[in-house]
Amino acid sequence: MRGIWKRLGFLAALILVIGAPVLGALAVRWKVSDLGAGKPPGAGRVAWVAEGKLWVKDLPDGKVRQLAAGENISRPAWSPTGRWLLFRHGEDLWLVGVGRGEARCVVQRVDEFAWSPAADVFACTAGGELCAGEPAKERPRVLVKREAGFDFRRIAWSPDGKWVAFERLKVGEGGAGQAGIWKVDAASGAVVRVYTSRLCFDREMGVVGEVPRLAGWSPDGEMVLLWRGPCSASIEADGLPLGLAPADGCEEPVPVVGKGWNWESAVLVRPGFVAAAPGKLALVIGAGRDTWTNKRLAVYDFRSGGLAYLTGTDQAAVDPAFSPYGKFLVYSAGPAGKGEETQAELRSLLGGRKLWAVDTDGGKPRRLTNDPAYRDERPFFSADGRYILFVRLDGENKASLWLVQPDGSGLEQVVESIGLLTGDFTFGYYGAVAWDELFAYWPGVADAALINAAKGTPEAKKLLARYPWAKIVVDRSGKSAVDFRVDKLEGDDKPGLYLRLRVFIDPETNTPADRFLDLNGRVIRTEIFRYLDEETVFGTKVPYLNPAYGVYLEFPRHWRPRPGYGDVAGIPASCGGDDGFFSLGAMNGEGLTPEEVARHEASHKLKPYGGRPRLEKITVNGREGYFVFPSPELGVGAGACCVVPYPRPVVITGEKYHYFILYADVKHIRDLAASLRFL
């Protein structure tokens, strides 16, 4: 029963009801160095290792250029603007600009490294410290200092580039240890615990306890993805259950697959087995380190918590990649083995891997490539979705890079040969090949980098300060542009009033260029700042949209976000003024009627509605619900609430909820509820 009554937002709302009241936005502005790299290529840019050298080419038909040479060059990695490359040179981390300049060592004896998705800033671990560096600066700065006994492991940037999540482990024979995931603010260095577990050392059993492994972030940056399992390399190799932990910290993560942390729903602890897109997560599910059997592709919906398998048991899928807007997936797959194959038969199974595509909302997978002379793996989409880059391996262990269009047409070889491959390398670790050691693809300026540049404009800052819930959309149909848009939802589904700021991005420098304001069809190109101050497009009430809670409503235009009541994905959960307020909440309530949930709310032991609260049955957005009004003695300034079941359960920060609860003052609760819509 405890889970049924779990609620979100109640404590904040309780403060609202009884009385008392910051939302901050960290804007990271950056400048691209002038490298003279020229016009961005149409199909992206690729870097690869061959003949002991690092090479680069603009796709599809640019000139091949050498950037660096030397023994043991590996693992190239592109900055989000495509102007810089990090790579390993032996044990050290090196940096080189694509346009001009010599390669230079930036960190010695590096462990892990990764570029921010939003700016040309990188994070790395070395010497027991976590650091952040920029191409224009000679040395990285320390974000997390060395701490005795702790070892850094995986790192991952948040989608907006504000945080770096990191994994640390401390274990020794002398006493208790700890394993966990933290995050550090890339600007201030402030460290926040995400999830930790205790370890101990037993002389017979070794390290005892659970170790979380960092897998990445949810697309909205609200959740951290992690694998969870014992401190055992052998068990880890067979895959571990994947889970979600709120990025602000939790005591118990939520499993992605099923209700428990079971081995049958394991996902291999490899980066190519998990991919994210707005609102979705693609994962290859199936225990066992053999990648040629028991590997099915599935999609997890962050909003509903639902999981849908997209492939059957006859295929063994690897390397999923989302199209830019998450509408379909491309992946590599071959016929599934039975687990009894000889080495030669296994190589034949791996040789049957081809590229396939499938819609994320279901449908039959369709084959994109079908040349029996090649094995096709590791696909990547270009930023505009017009191309897919992938690696092909022939029967003589020669690997090459190719482009193909999403419908299977336009197949073209773009790099003749990468690496100096051996049979052991191409067989991989039980069929999983570490292609990121040999090549890296820059698909074009990522959405996150375009949005980050547009957010740096004074006009965007002004609009987002007023409408933090504005929808942000990247448009690549012509000139690259970013739209910040607020829409009023009409009851009859007709187009409503809207406000839009469009910021164009210079493709050569990835910096803001022209911009205009669109006030419901009235285009303004000068004095935009003044018009943003004076606009009254929506009249006396402004639209509010919260995708995390799945709701839309309208409130008085003079209300503002209320400090101290939190936010989800940057959108405030409470707004108000001197004359009233509203706040969002949710309750599990599975199996309960709206009246039962409302009575439970009204009878809370802290008595936020006084000793004689009153229930009133209503219909909200076509759904039966209840108002809970406070006792008369509390007065007109007291708080009330509206309880309404969701059309479908929603998942907020990893927890599933069946009921939405709108908290507000008595004076405004009816008007707010009347404007409520479920998304």
UniProtKB/TrEMBL annotation:
Lineage, highest ranks first: Bacteria, Bacillati, Bacillota, Clostridia, Eubacteriales
InterPro entries attached to this UniProt entry: 6-blade_b-propeller_TolB-like, WD40
Originating organism: Desulfofundulus thermosubterraneus DSM 16057
Coiled-coil portions: none
Name of the protein in question: WD40-like Beta Propeller Repeat
Cited Gene3D superfamilies: Dipeptidylpeptidase IV, N-terminal domain, TolB, C-terminal domain
Domain of life according to the entry: Bacteria
Family from the record: Belongs to the TolB family.
Pfam assignment, any one: PD40
